[in-house]
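pipeline/complex-builder :: batch 7 item 3
reading input block
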Amino acid sequence: MKAFTYERAKDPVAAARAAARPGARFIAGGTNLLDLMKIEVETPSHLVDVQDLGFDRIEKTRDGGLRIGALVTNTNLAADERVRRDYGVLTRAIMAGASGQLRNKASTAGNLLQRTRCPYFYDTNMACNKRKPGSGCSAIGGVSRQLGVIGVSDKCIATFPGDMAVAMRVLDAVIETVDANGQQRSIPIVDFHRLWGDRPEIETNLRQGELITAVTLPRPLGGKHLYEKVRDRASYAYALVSVAAVIQSDGTGRVAFGGVAPKPWRVEAAEALLPRGAAAVTARAFQGATPTEDNKFKLPLATRALASVIAQAKA
Amino acid sequence: MAGISEIELSRRGLLAGSAATAAIVASPIPAEAAPVPPSPALASLPVSFEVNGTRRELKLDPRTTLLDALREHLRLTGTKKGCDHGQCGACTVMVDGVRINSCLSLAVMHEGDKITTIEGLGTPEKLHPMQAAFVKHDGYQCGYCTPGQICSAVAVLDEIKRGIPSFVQADLTDRPQATNIEMRERMSGNICRCGAYSNIAEAMAEVAGAKA
């Protein structure tokens, strides 16, 4: 691990100011950042510890939604009674991810910023445009079974690996931030993660030093909340394909896919076809997909996973 | 296939390398990056926390993980280093009553925390009920993952008691029960290469007062 200096920030704007310096990074749970620092994929020169900033509460908003502090752990978010009752898709998605130990440490904000699990991103001997811009992409033409089928580019075919954000996308969550000047902004989750395009090293629309303070959920949607995750083992593995859905009794609803793209993949025009069945939805949601030989199985798998979700909603 | 050079690869490197064999054929290995200059020595930072009820004060390189602080600085070698990447659970300890991977946490971030390791659960003379149940049910073979398994198992039963939900729960608003399927799901962050899983679940069931 490269050496770094460390500070424990006492207020959000001071933290943002400290992290705006080149080479500085925020650290919350640290479960992803430290893992990558050990293999020197991440080499921050300064860490700004945000654990004292008090963003560890879940509160009701005035319009009947929930405001989740950026530092609320995955476990505490999933276990919150209001989340379990009104936003079950979120509890199910979080509990489908990682392990108990990791969920006890991983934060809400950190989970949104989780980096890809593409094996070529992790292997510093291989070309990776995300890790080292301009070096190429060993995944293209390489072993790509886990990698993306849509929204990818000729520079990078990695996926966003998380589960929580897929549920948040279905719920139309909004990410709140503050910057070094004390300026606050709200970013709808649809605009938070970027498609790779020519700059796969830039994964979100956050600016250097911009600090996530909370994630808000609009008022509850009702309906059945489901999260189906297909993976290589029954627990503690990344998704090959996942489906987050909220389905109403009349068969309409919302659906987003994980494990397939650089961001949680939701196409509103596709979910409008939910009453016509899974195949209609995925045909539209994955229009223009560019799978590899290795991962083209993800397309029929997405249809079948969604069919399973629709069947569970009817049960 | 790759001959003796493979012996020099780390396990992680070997796994990634074998997964990437096709890519090596398809695209040339990129030129080595310009060597990054070695980091200058940085000042150690003071940290104090409580380990198994005793106040400990250390001065540490900020890079020191909680795991290395426990093992290398406090000589509490019961907690094990398996993968050092949060994948195996051998390093599981409890911090303020909650289980975490101590390998993925910086020691300096634990100022004022209360840490419990396997040494704090029981002693050879006075075993923790979970330790005794592991012995009785043969919940280990080589024993390397066992301290992490036991810390995790104790914490899992507490999580069930506190009503923390899980992926295998049918109704999220129900209180979870210590069933076999619940314990297996909740213990998935602890890998046992000897495959003692079914006996671990039985040991946990005995402590939980349930049937496996």
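note: DSSP finds twelve helices and eleven strands in chain A.
queue -> next item
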